[in-house]
Amino acid sequence: xxxxxxxxxxxxxxxxxxxxxxxxxxxxxxxxxxxxxxxxxxxxxxxxxxxxxxxxxxxxxxxxxxxxxxxxxxxxxxxxxxxxxxxxxxxxxxxxxxxxxxxxxxxxxxxxxxxxxxxxxxxxxxxxxxxxxxxxxxxxxxxxxxxxxxxxxxxxxxxxxxxxxxxxxxxxxxxxxxxxxxxxxxxxxxxxxxxxxxxxxxxxxxxxxxxxxxxxxxxxxxxxxxxxxxxxxxxxxxxxxxxxxxxxxxxxxxxxxxxxxxxxxxxxxxxxxxxxxxxxxxxxxxxxxxxxxxxxxxxxxxxxxxxxxxxxxxxxxxxxxxxxxxxxxxxxxxxxxxxxxxxxxxxxxxxxxxxxxxxxxxxxxxxxxxxxxxxxxxxxxxxxxxxxxxxxxxxxxxxxx
Length: 401
Hints:
By secondary structure, the protein is an all-alpha fold. It has helices spanning 2-30, 34-61, 64-88, 93-121, 127-155, 158-176, 192-204, 207-238, 241-261, 270-279, 282-291, 298-326, 332-361, 364-379, 385-388, 393-396.
């Protein structure tokens, strides 16, 4: 049962990782217009952001297995349709944007249902290991997905990349058919706004959650700034495009290692580790900022990014597990949707704001500002007693693997 869950989430992660590269290359081949590319990418992101709170309510009202099943099937249909249209000719940008919007809407319903599904399938003592396995799968997918999508597009054309993506989503949907989830607590059905308010009340009940999520939003904002300005600084000051490739790939590997290590460590204060893991993202922001004035050795910049991504990799399964342990199961989907909404909204904001701010104040200013905010906001959670409190000896034991 657990193996089936992890397999399904692994296939879905790979399918999701194929989409951005495939979509970018497809639009470039169809029109070559940066404006068209921006329209299609925005068409995927905006419905996702608008519908995430709705997806949280749905994930708490209905069995999460069914919600994810429908979301996977919708994404399958959208990707197969786009792939077929690309194989038959050059689809209109409006059609590509519409299918991208349908995909983004499906993501908004699927993401909040994952934690309730894990809680319903996995016993409490095994959740950290399962969350880590899902996290490793996601990290590997982030490495393999763009390469696979790019290779298929260059070799056979963009249509085949989308057909493969659709097949993978169909495979993910198939794995859900054999899952049996534990019965959920019975709750009274309120209207939509009532359910949304109840979910927000549950989120507000946990100070550690709200402050941590604010910190996560700040590091996503910082990531958007770094991913925009980092490649430019690497080319201009650190030795060229190959430097950024080395830094980015080293960071991806570090993320996977961090996720892999999390369940094997003896951690008595998981929320404190989460806070520190997010705060160290200030390191590469500062390293790239200082490199605009005095270029640092490539090994130093790479090491700063590796430390940051190792911290983020470690925090991800810990965070998911703590939220699953401490948040009421009947509100978990809505609480997760608030977390995802802040994170998904903050990174595009960083991507959009980085270049204009850098043009006005120089590249170092937004990077240093983001570094300070990342460190301060994430470390602020350490002031809360419930974060500094030690877990039981049993809970701190590494998970056997």
